Amino acid sequence: MKEFLQKLKVMPITGYILFLFTGLVIFFFGAFLVILLRTKNPSKIIMPDLIGKNYIEVHNELVRLGFKVHIQNKRFLDKNDGSILSQSITPGKSTERGSKITLVVNIGVDRVTIPDLRGQSLSNARANLEKVLSGETYVSIPLGEITYIEAKEGQFPETVIDQIPKPGKETTTREKIYLLVTEPKGYKNPVDNFKSLQGKPVSFATEKLKRKNLSWKISDIVSTKSKSESGLVESIEKKDNRYNLKVFFFPVSQRIESGYESISYKIDAPNEYKVVEVAEDQKGKKEEEILPLAFYAKNEELKLVYYRNGNSKLTIYAKDGDKEKSYSFESDL
Prior knowledge:
This protein is an alpha+beta fold. It has helices spanning 2-10, 13-40, 55-64, 122-129, 202-211; strands at 44-46, 68-74, 84-87, 94-96, 100-106, 111-113, 132-134, 137-139, 143-149, 160-164, 170-172, 177-182, 215-223, 233-239, 242-249, 258-266, 271-281, 284-296, 301-309, 311-318, 323-329. The N and C termini lie far apart (86 Å).
């Protein structure tokens, strides 16, 4: 110890400075290493559940947490605009700040609930479609084609008796509404003049033919890339006292609560066949013959396009009542 003190006494001033500088370097180097290690190991966070939330509402929070967000868009009419449909990081999973996340977000326009226009005069129905509540504002729903049909006893002229889409459907202002309306007074439409049914919903076109006691079949289902064309009559022609309809159909990847469906079934034995639907919605079950008895030859295809509202089961029956084939259609949501 005495020797060390003696050496300090004789150490020049430059030695003291060098000693102090070395200590400071070691201190700051250690502090730098601590900061560097913390930077390389960001703190963990628990991934929140974003599904169903509006992206605009959660955007700032995701930025605050340091997420690098990638957006993919899909479009579903039954989902709200901006609603997050899925996320690439599972909710509840521990992840690092600054992680990349992909969100699938629904894009859309003004959402509306289809009003019930049945029983209204055509003029009132038109006026009501111009003022439909969407959130806190009023918007209009575009009117598609009107199909006029012969009135039954007790029905008034120019009165809405059916509509597509059905009342209560959640949709957007891009979807047109089609009306089935009783003929006005003095309406003239020769029995054989059915070219006007082109562009009309197949359900309304066939109802018009049934009221005239005319035989019909769907001769062809025409694939279309336009969803707005699905279920509309592409063409109609008369052959051998029967009306043959070609109908557009847009196949969907995901079924919502209502929409057009199609079936095609090759007949094994020549006979008369019909199709009966059992539909189930919030009001209960309803059974209806949607394709009347008609003769089909062997290997001929029985084809049908119809509008489903709720869950639906179709059954093909032979003339003697034997079940030939059944199909079930349900919402995927």
